[in-house]
Design a protein that fits this description.
Shape: globular
Largest sheet: none
Mean pLDDT: 92
CATH topology: Ribonucleotide Reductase, subunit A
Oligomer: single chain
Low-confidence stretches: none
Length: 283
């Protein structure tokens, strides 16, 4: 099996040595339940005719629950990734990979603690079963061979999709300052994680018979669709908790919202282009 670029992994480990706890990097006093967390153009219902009729407190609460949805997606992916990565750690692993994986697990653990703190700081009801991962994406993340091309391609998706959303948010007006802090911490660390995942994917693809690549593309395409669907459209119960009865109807409206569809396509385009540059067919 081909090895990932060890020189790159050593450089990434060196860049991770000056670790700062994400919990200390966020001004939690600014995570005010009485303020909007996300700007209106970043919300799933923005652009619909019904949007103009929503009360200000409903819009505000929706902005909070939509960011809570993003954090739940992050908690799920980081939990699965760390579970899979832990099983790869062994004395047989090259030192550069072993050391880098330890750095990444420390950073991913910090992100998860940051997400949990933000959800708790909101002091909003979030029922335990309200958020569930998409079935196929969850199965693939847990079952795809941890050293294989499909696993590392899925890891690129899991890290690059939220990264592009976070980077977009940081350039918008109207983002809550604490939310901006969270996005900034995530972007800085994810730049390293994405670089490492790409190196692992490139190494895995060198071992993959080219005839198998077309067989992986439909699975990866479905994974991207399922992940984007839950990332960009919160569960029906989150709409109801925001003050919108019949949450399933509102979620369907969000998924069919042409303004939202355009927003999602723009955020996903760099990720799809990156994966297609490796030979995957995703569109």
């Amino acid at each position: 099996m081909q090895n990932a670029d060890h020189a790159l992994l050593r450089q990434l480990s060196e860049n991770s040595q000056r670790y700062r706890d994400p919990l200390a990097a966020v001004d939690w006093t600014r995570l005010d339940r009485e303020a909007c967390w996300l700007p209106e153009p970043a919300l799933s219902l923005y652009g619909l005719a019904a949007w103009d009729d929503l009360a200000p407190d409903v819009r505000r609460r929706l902005s909070q629950y939509e960011f809570i949805n993003v954090m739940h997606a992050g908690l799920w992916l980081e939990r699965v990734f760390m579970q899979r990565l832990t099983r790869r750690l062994s004395s047989r692993l090259a030192r550069a990979e072993y050391e880098y994986f330890l750095h990444e697990m420390r950073e991913e653990s910090g992100h998860s603690l940051m997400f949990l703190r933000a959800i708790e700081a909101a002091r909003l009801p979030v029922p335990a079963e309200a958020w569930r991962p998409p079935a196929l994406a969850d199965w693939l993340a847990r079952r795809a061979p941890a050293g294989g091309a499909l696993f590392w391609a899925a890891t690129v998706v899991a890290e690059d999709v939220p990264d592009k959303f976070n980077r977009h948010l940081r350039g918008l007006d109207g983002v809550n300052p604490a939310v901006r802090d969270i996005c900034t911490v995530h972007c800085i660390d994810e730049a390293r994680h994405i670089a490492a995942a790409r190196a692992q994917l490139e190494a895995a693809l060198q071992d993959l018979p080219r005839a198998l690549l077309p067989l992986l593309s439909p699975l990866l395409r479905l994974l991207v669709r399922q992940y984007a669907r839950v990332f960009y459209a919160p569960p029906a119960q989150f709409y109801e908790l925001s003050g919108l009865p019949h949450g399933e109807r509102w979620r369907r409206m969000a998924l069919r919202n042409p303004v939202r569809q355009s927003f999602v396509r723009e955020r996903l385009a760099p990720t799809l282009h990156l994966l297609e540059s490796y030979g995957f067919r995703l569109q």
